[in-house]
Amino acid sequence: MSDDQVQQPLEQLIANRRNKLDGLVELGIEVYPPRFRVQESVSGLRKRFGETPAEELEQQEHRVRLAGRLRAIRGHGKAAFADLSDGASKIQLHLKKDRLGDEAWKVFKLLDLGDFVGVEGPLFRTRTGELTVAVERLTVLAKALRPMPEKFHGLTDREARARQRYLDLLANPDSREEFATRSAIISGIRRFLEAHGFMEVETPMMQPIPGGATARPFTTHHNALDLDLFLRIAPELYLKRLIVGGFERVFELNRNFRNEGISTRHNPEFTMLELYWAYADYELLMELTEEMITEIALGTVGSLEISWGEQTIHLDRPWRRMSLREAILEHSDLGPEDLADRSSMAAAAKRLGVERIEERSDGKLLAELFEVTAEQRLIDPTFITDFPRDISPLAKSRADDPDVVERFELFMGGIELANAYTELNDPLEQRRRLEEQAATTGGTVDEDFLLALEHGMPPTGGEGIGIDRLVMLLTGRTSIRDVILFPLLRPRDGE
């Protein structure tokens, strides 16, 4: 029996393991060897032999060479059973003193749960039908000096799980599955876009001007050039340069950084998909987005019905489309007269508890009314369209209403998931809008981007999708911390 199967203080468990480490060294064992060649993984072995009858295993003597972490040890005098895990699957080991030999048996008796070992031997089935390795050779690969997490605190606290994700993955199979699903979602997105003719590219993470979105950037400094730089808020303006350069369908799936608050939906470092499609518009992007997300959902979670708290998100196509104003009116007691002009919107906003009304432009005020009335109620996927121009400086205006742009935001589960628009490709109008934005916010106009635009950019549709939020929605997780392996957290006292 492993020492940590007995209730002892953590300090004593660690001391016991260190004593066993010393014991292994005294036996001449290289406790942390540089390599161990495996023939296949535990998961692969179970997949290959999981249904093989006992008689066939006995007749053909399938020999294996495996490695993994010990997750259980059950001793019975001169024989023992143990479970060997590769993280995803486990297989039973059968160890006997007379099969291993005296020296190897001494080594085995110094092992604990969490230790890594390599084993060799034939497969067989026990009388209960359990697929098992009859261990003939045992190799120590790494001694764990601390006990497995479930033995000292269970790691059920959400913040503790995020702080020590490696322990969370060991203790909580569901967590491991969620991050495997995240990987599958990202791989599926890449396959989908490549199948639709998009090329993956990489653009600068450090930028001389923080552009492409409105947010507070992280700043840094390049010593050799004596140049202040900014971690990118978004890759948008560089991706548009590639459209100017002749690439017609590009995407980037990478990190963005925003020096702002942390919440269940926000992390300062997050993963975004941005794609740009020459000769397309926001209407085509809506169709592409529907197709991509439904295909990804079916391929990763196997359903178009997603549990979201006490509600269900239905991904069946087509997805609903409605304007910003229509959404406000449908999900509130406000009437058209409350959205007629600045004064009526201000009065409605005041009744709804909106703060700093006088600081907001007309477009920002309308968007704030949407956020406090409709956003949380959009559970099934819904495209919200017809955004005001003054909050969309990079989007093309509608031909029938220059104060409204061809833009949508996609909402699911009450969360903004995507933002897209028909790109503004008129360099003169783009300069006017960026200069107006800079005068209002104190920002800087990206002259190099405008120079690129003056060389001509075709009609283009562009979109950004929050990958962390997409994973949240498809896995039914309500906090972004649960789907980022190592989210940013406030340091604990003493750290």
What are the key terms here?
nine-stranded mixed β-sheet, alpha+beta, BirA Bifunctional Protein, domain 2, five-stranded mixed beta barrel, elongated, OB fold (Dihydrolipoamide Acetyltransferase, E2P), 495 residues, 16 helices
Structure description:
- The protein has 495 residues and is of the alpha+beta class.
- The protein has 16 helices and 20 strands.
- It has two domains: 149 residues, OB fold (Dihydrolipoamide Acetyltransferase, E2P) (Beta Barrel); 276 residues, BirA Bifunctional Protein, domain 2 (2-Layer Sandwich).
- Strands 7, 11, 12, 15, 16, 17, 18, 19 and 20 form a nine-stranded mixed sheet that branches.
- The longest helix is centred in the middle third of the chain and has 23 residues.
- The mean pLDDT is 94.
